[in-house]
Amino acid sequence: MNRIISKEHFSDKVVKLVVEAPLIAKSRRAGHFVIVRCDAHGERIPLTIADADTSKGTITLVIQDVGLSSHKISALEPGECLADVVGPLGQATRIEKYGTVLCCGGGVGVAPLLPILTAFKKAGNRVVSVLAARSKDLIILEKEVREYSDDVIIMTDDGSYGKKGLVTAGVEEVIKREKVDKVVTIGPAIMMKFVSLLTKQYNIPTECSLNAIMVDGTGMCGACRVTVGGKTKFVCVDGPEFDAHEVDFDQLMMRLKSYK
Amino acid sequence: MENNDIIQSRQEQWREDLRKGKSAKDRIKIPRVKMPELSPAYRITCREEVNQGITAEMARVEAQRCLDCVNPQCVTGCPVGINIPKFIKNVERGNFEAAAAILKETSALPAVCGRVCPQEKQCESKCIHHKMKSEPVAIGYLERFVADYERASGKKTLPDVAQPNGIKVAVVGSGPAGLSFAGDMIKLGYDVTVFEALHEIGGVLKYGIPEFRLPNSIVDYEIDGLKALGVKFEKDVIIGKTFTYDDLHKMGFKGVFVASGAGLPRFMNIPGENLNGVMSSNEYLTRINLMGAGSEGWDTPVLRGKRIAVIGGGNTAMDSVRTARRMGAEHAILVYRRSEEEMPARLEEVKHAKEEGVEFMTLHNPIEYIGDESGRVKLMRLQKMELGEPDASGRRSPVPIEGAIEEVLVDLVIVSVGVSPNPLVPRSIEGLEVSKRNTIVVDEDTMKSSLNDVYAGGDIVRGGATVILAMGDGRKAAQHMHEALSSK
After folding, report:
1. A41 touches B: beta carbon within 8 Å
2. What is the pLDDT of residues B344-359, one digit of tens each?
3. Pick from B373, B393, B415: which residue ends a domain?
4. Are B389 and B343 contained in the same domain?
């Protein structure tokens, strides 16, 4: 169980793992996440499911090496096993035909965004994707995103690939040139905050997917609580997707620093 | 059946001989045994179990205090209906193995119940000794002694199990309700699989109750006993997510017992509650008990503090505040809105907490938390309270004293004001009737839900109760599911 089938380095700090998890592969939908424990003394950390193959019984996880547990998981090699993989957790994305959906992903946020934009495309939407990262080598899954997007805009902070500038510049470019019915944004909290502020000006409904600190991931601990529309919500059972215009991103960013 | 057993077993010759051997008058004169405990100064430096257990000699003397009543009321006070006089009289005559076997007839977890049951409110509250202004027989200590004796002896007696009937039943959650149900159904011959969402079996017994009150090794021993009887356990499986209710049908399960517990921690919805350093008791205890935070070699972190406040007056609040002392808090402060008299926590826990230096701020209620520039809590504002008229719970209700606000410096706050049922399972089973409070609605007599093959018990039905009440639900559900399945 939970065997790593293959591993691919997207960059220095970002790896893609294909993990044997047949039950989860079968039951997961876009937007779901899993809780993973590396070894018997490991933390439980949430990871969004980037892809799944029901025939092979595998799920795909994309991990950015940012701390103890992500470092340990990134270091696993094919053939090794994760101690625990449990899920699928969270509410699945509501997939409907909206018209034009702008999917905006930053850094490793593109991994969880991929199944969502794929589902929107399959539901008959026009999908425009904006991918953003600090530099060219941190742009991930571009080929896969292009496959299910009608148009793709790439933004890098240093201009090493695509257009130079922040993700919001790419988003605004699309909003100005065509009618956008829905925006989905996944990435660092600070990025989602500014995308949300921008789309609010244009009054475009915007969903974000939050990555909060969790322990059990099943609604038990409340570590992942976040304020949405003035009310406390649990990312694990109420989310991970919320109306971005209602999310208190400043509080989310503060809470993400709890253990730093 | 159980009633008959109580009457008949009392008439056995050896019981009569024991009764004749010592007069009731002499039995009443014996003082109640005192539980040996680790010293407070030592125990706050470690996680070792505070209660050390009584010796065989102490147990046999304590058992003599039991008058072997004609109509033993203690049994009516036990949610699972243990034949208490029968096991105690076996202790008296020194037949500890027989005593252990009697406990196992009705309780799947005797070593657990002997430690965490509120006996003072249950079996012991009904003891005949109360009528004679004497302290009740220490039934809980004796139960624990018998279970521990058996474990230490290495001779595990397994209860009788019926011929396998090949009927598959599923249990959702491996806490006390689920384990109790599983134990009864396996004895009745069913093919029982318990699905657990976490990576450890035991539910609240593992993630919630701390090591110093209930060592995990004890829980594992009881679980191993169920495994030996044939109960199958599947970890990391969430019913409603990994498998749906329909999947369970396809897998051949004929009955489902939902015991998924009280997941969602409650907060008070006051300003500053989402500051860093304010967390639920579920989070605090799970990090430490289940995830090993604070122990060498474990990855999960936990915030520490010098001045830790725990909000609430229940057993979980006591567990949290006593854990805080062990995690190095110089000041571990319990904040409770009523007075000590109304506290729902066990008396023993309150006593232990005080011995360990926990500071009690009763008749205080937090109204706001204030953070520093980094977002970490630094201060709590407390409203002073006084007691008014009794409320719906029968306890005198706390009423704010206008203008009486106190500010207390804190660097960690653990909120322990109750839990709501875990929404995962109820939300995922179509047609399952759920109350406004998100509990599963069941027939109180049978524990059957609005769906014919789904029964439920424990906190998912009660919304936050005790280990033993959950176990009682498991027993009741097993009995009625068995009746339904065997009449088909």
Report:
1. yes
2. 998 899 999 999 999 9
3. B415
4. yes
In this prediction, what percent of chain B has a pLDDT beyond 70? 99
Dist. CA B294–CA B301, nearest whole Å: 7
Environment class of residue B127 by beta-carbon count within 10 Å: exposed (0-12), middle (13-18) or buried (19+)? Answer: buried
ipTM of the complex: 0.94
Q: Is B340 exposed, middle or buried (0-12, 13-18, 19+ CB in 10 A)?
A: middle
Residues B327 and B302 in one domain: yes
Check CB contact under 8 Å for B235 and A24: no
Of B243, B264, B283, the CB nearest to A215: B283
Residue B1 has what pLDDT?
41
Domain count, chain B: 3
Structural domain boundaries, residue B34: 4-153
On chain A, the residues whose CB falls within 8 A of the CB of B292 are 41
Residues in contact with B302: Cβ distance below 8 Å, sequence separation at least 6, in sequence order: B284, B287, B288, B293, B294, B327
> A with B: how many residue pairs have Cβ under 8 Å apart?
115
> Are the Cβ atoms of A255 and B283 closer than 8 angstroms?
no
- Can you give the pLDDT at residue B405? 97
B302 and B398, same structural domain?
yes
The share of chain A scoring above pLDDT 90, in percent, equals 95
**Final residue in a domain of this structure, among B398, B415, B432:** B415
Looking at residue B426, its pLDDT comes to 82
pLDDT reading at B463 higher than 90:
no
Could you give the dihedral angle defined by the CA atoms of residues B216, B219, B223 and B228, in that order, rounded to the nearest 10 degrees? 90
- Residue among B303, B301, B300 at smallest CA distance from B277: B303
Residue A44: its chain B contacts at CB < 8 A? 199, 291, 300
Residue type, B458: G
Q: What would the mean pLDDT of B382-392 be, rounded to a whole number? A: 92
Domain at B460, CATH number: 3.50.50.60
Measure CA of the first residue to CA of the last residue in chain B; give whole Å.
22
Chain B residues with CB-CB distance to A38 below 8 A: 299
pTM confidence score: 0.93
Q: Are residues B68 and B187 in the same domain?
A: no
Any idea what the Cα angle at residue A83 is, between residues A80 and A85, rounded to 5°? 105
pLDDT reported for residue B106: 85
